[in-house]
Amino acid sequence: MYVRGTGGVGHCEISMGRKEKKDKDHKDDVCWLSVHGGVAALLLCIAVFALLVRVAVSIHPYSGAGDPPKYGDYEAQRHWMEITLNTPAKEWYRNSTINDLTYWGLDYPPLTAYQSYVHGLFLRFFHPDSVALFTSRGHESPIGKLLMRWTVLSSDVIVFFPAALYFIIVFYTGRRDNCKEDIAWHLAIILLNPCLILIDHGHFQFNCISLGFTIGAVAAIFSKHELVASVLFSLALNHKQMSAYFALAFFSHLLGKCLRRQKPFLEVLKLGLVVLGTFIITWWPYLYSVDAFMQVLSRLTPFERGIYEDYVANFWCTTSIIIKWKRLFTTQLLQLLSFNATILAALPSMVQQIRYPSNQGFLYALLNISFAFYLFSFQVHEKSILLPLLPASLLAVEEPHLFGWLTYYALLSMYPLLLRDHLILPYVSLLALFILFNYSPIRRQGRKERGFLSVWKVLLITLLLSCSLVLHLIYLMLKPPERYPFLFDAMIMLLCFSQFVLLAAYTNVKQWKFMSHSTSIEKEKKIL
Amino acid sequence: MEGELTSSRRVAHRSTREETEKEKNRIPGSVTAIEELIWFAGVATCIKLLLIPSYRSTDFEVHRHWLALTSSLPLSQWYYDETSPWTLDYPPLFAYFERFLSIFANLVDTKIVDLHNGLNYSADSVVYFQRISVMVSDLCLFYGVYRLTKSLDSAKRRMIWVLIVWSPALIIVDHVHFQYNGFLLGFLLISLSYLEEGRDLMGGFVFAMLLCFKHLFAVAAPVYFVYLLRHYCRGGLVNSIGKFLMMGTVVGSVFLVAFGPFLYHGQIQQVLRRMFPFGRGLCHAYWAPNFWVFYIISDKGLAFVLAKLGFSIQTPAASFTGGLVGDSSPFAVLPRVTPLVTFMLVLLALSPCLVKVWREPRPGMITRWVAYAYTCGFLFGWHVHEKASLHFVIPLAVVAVRSLEDARHYFLLSIVSCYSLFPLLFEADEYSIKVLLLLLHSLLTWVGFSSQFSKTTVVSTKQQGEKMGSKEGLVAAKGGGLVVGWVRICYLLVLLFVEVWGQFLHHYLLGDKLPFLPLMLISIYCALGIMYSWIWQLRFIIRCP
């Protein structure tokens, strides 16, 4: 027998106030069950809905569909399945007669390779032609597409969904201001992130795995299982090197926590060993010689590709309108420059987390540091905006407007890419779906706050929104002038960059403000 | 400090939210209700947009051809044209509707409305145009739902929206398979909402329009006739005759507007011949899950048993999907079924309901009665499509929130009817879509009904339980949520087995033998569920005081 609905929440609040702190943790669990017995089914509904949306997106085209000779990311992933399936693990990263690295050579860490191998087995079982060595290059068939889509869908369901659910459960356990709608809404917002769905299930990638591991690691930190968190984050790093955007945040938060304990050195050592162990296990096939190890490592860091690609809305690409970085400096100098800039931008958040590690501050640090990487690091891709988006979605309850704004401009920054993939229809419908969920009538908080905005702010927001809408239309309808073929791309990039910088500045300030109050809140909690 | 501030702000938010909730309850049908409906419709539309490139049946080409036909030929040739096998076989109002759409189609891409060059045209332009035309015409459905639910409290209203606006069956049939059922059902719901309000004249008017859009909705006409006769045409003799004439004029004028031009050209016979093609067989290619499935199966069974016993049974040459061609009967043992027989059976099944309507025409019951009529039509009608189950599943959603018993019945019915539509989408790409749609629907229905009926106090549920003469009401109050009952659970589990059999086990165990078995199993098994629903509805209608 349990209490249900809002009445249940009220009941919990009262009982929480009266009980002693010792019982609190235990009580929290009971409270969770009582409130969430009814919520569980609701969360399941949301998960099924999110899956339905993904399946519906997956019937649309993928990147490079029908576009020989190199096709796109879809062909890259398929090719990796083909290579991992038909060659021994030692050969995966090495150029040979079988494995031509110039044609979509494997350039992701070993965990991606293992995942490709498993998915390759799946494809071979149902449709051997689609992963046959050599002959399957550029393979395109309806059944092949369906199977490939299923590999992403299943990865999403196996990794990302449980991780998001784990995060939600941990995040709302022990909170006194739980509200059924908030929990459901938060899960929906995390699972229905339009950018992630479009890139994974439209464009075709496996970001859900590395991002899923990252969410899992965050949740593990929240539930005080730091070793588990280290393992999960190491897995994320080993699936996609891009997860390194978060590494400094994890590092500084865990370091800060360890330093506050009785035996800081031992704690750090434990975490370090766990990380090292995870790395050794995943890299095992390449540890037999330094040469093999370096070979893989060089594949993972393609510095020769230049400081930026296409028209990504980061600092280097945007300022290249005025300063021609690529022409003025050597690649090595640029590497050093971007490395320093990134560290400098990430430093405030790191210091904050080392000095005052807190759960809420950690989420902000993840956001700020991944922003720093997106804006300043070397070789950034449009899709990298998915990384700052992830902590922003975890913060969505605190910062609904920030999250909405960021998602909108993140989508806009990927607009040219998605348009090339013929994904305009899912782009529009997922954007609409996102707006509907972000401002759903069931959750009216966002709407109430808008009343406090001044006229100028409203005017500015309207101006920016109409600007972006016009850009959408211009990019879709008009042909750029011959002299500046990338004029519209540059305009989109400029607009997005300005917004990203503003948001990053805001969250940095917020994180530091948060710190000065965090101690007082903790004290307050102890008194309670 | 700030922590306190934020928490107090949150509390303030919650209290304001609760206030708005209260406000909503106080003024039903206020702006917030419309906003909420827009939200529900918006979410549904996003999914529909995503489904644009999915599989589409020949019905897509049928409707495209009708666009071309109505736009490029003069009205007098609409029902004579045979350029494509997909001749116009809907009543005139629908043809006018297609003519109206063709104006826009012409603006989008002139090839869509080209009678000869446009045949089997499948460019993006036509796909987007036709798919979006279905989505826009769904506005009619949303308006109907809004009219029907505007006076309800917010929880019930939301539940009905979930059931109708997010109906998986409508998405499967209209937005994947391709048809305009949402649009037509919208008219039915608008008509029912007028009747429930007591505005009979408008109700009759809208229903007459519906009949001129799609004549298959005429199955409920007897119910409408008796109801309007008894409820609308009341008062003294003069008064009632006056009202009868009034209603007759309104309905007649609708029919006159629709059929008038064809009457003028002297083509009424041709129009009717096109609308009622009795050349088609008793059953559709895929047997709709209705009474005739059992009839066919028992015929086969009897033939088999009798043949074993030594009787000489001739295998029938005709098939029951083939129609009334020649004199041979498709049945080996049992008597042959003609359209007249099915017609009489439908009327017979309807008669208890008609008696009830005659005795006490109550506006609160009209939705049930109309839904019952469509159930009868579905079960016993001639050449029934599986899609016709929408005609009673959608209106029944409105009454499903009224009591626990209703909710239980609807939970089962909606799942079965949606499942019976699965064979419509047979391609691998859409498999996961249809399964997820149904799964989501069942979950949402379960969650929604659970929260609705756990909120109502134990006392009222108890009373209800006693009233219904069953103890299940008590159980529901104790356990919380929707207790579906173990019989229904078992039924649904076997349904799952039927699906697993058809998809995997059949191929694995039997190989290519008996290829018709999976579909037949679905038909038979769903027919059981629909029969149950029919009996349940009949019992409810008879018992209702």
How would you sum up this structure in a few lines?
The complex is a heterodimer of chains A (528) and B (545). By secondary structure, chain A is mostly helical.
CA gyration radius of chain A, whole angstroms: 24 Å
Structural domain tally of chain A: 1
What is the number of E strands of chain A?
0
Please provide the ordered H/E string of secondary-structure elements of chain A: HHHHHHHHHHHHHHHHHHHHHHH
Biggest pleated sheet of chain B? none
Plain-language structure description:
Chain A has about 525 residues and is mainly alpha-helical. Chain A is built from 23 helices and no strands. In chain A, helix 4 packs across helix 5 and helix 8 runs antiparallel to helix 9. With about 550 residues, chain B is mostly helical. Among the domains of chain B are: about 80 residues, no CATH class; about 55 residues, no CATH class; about 110 residues, no CATH class. The chains are: A mainly alpha (about 525), B mainly alpha (about 550). At the A-B interface, helix 2, helix 5, helix 20 and helix 23 of A face helix 1, helix 2 and helix 19 of B. Chain A: This is Alpha-1,3-glucosyltransferase. Chain A: One of its GO terms (molecular function) is dolichyl pyrophosphate Man9GlcNAc2 alpha-1,3-glucosyltransferase activity.
Topology:
The complex is a heterodimer of chains A (528) and B (545).
Chain A: H1 5-18, H2 24-58, H3 73-86, H4 110-126, H5 142-172, H6 180-191, H7 194-204, H8 207-222, H9 226-239, H10 244-259, H11 264-283, H12 290-300, H13 315-319, H14 325-328, H15 331-355, H16 359-376, H17 386-394, H18 400-413, H19 415-420, H20 424-438, H21 445-450, H22 455-477, H23 487-527
Helix pairs in contact in A: 1-2, 2-5, 2-6, 2-7, 3-4, 4-5, 5-6, 5-8, 8-9, 9-10, 9-11, 10-11, 10-15, 10-16, 15-16, 16-17, 16-23, 17-18, 18-20, 18-23, 22-23
Chain B: H1 2-26, H2 31-50, H3 58-72, H4 92-108, H5 124-137, H6 139-149, H7 154-165, H8 168-178, H9 181-197, H10 200-213, H11 221-232, H12 237-264, H13 268-275, H14 291-309, H15 339-359, H16 366-380, H17 390-400, H18 404-420, H19 428-455, H20 458-468, H21 472-479, H22 486-510, H23 517-543
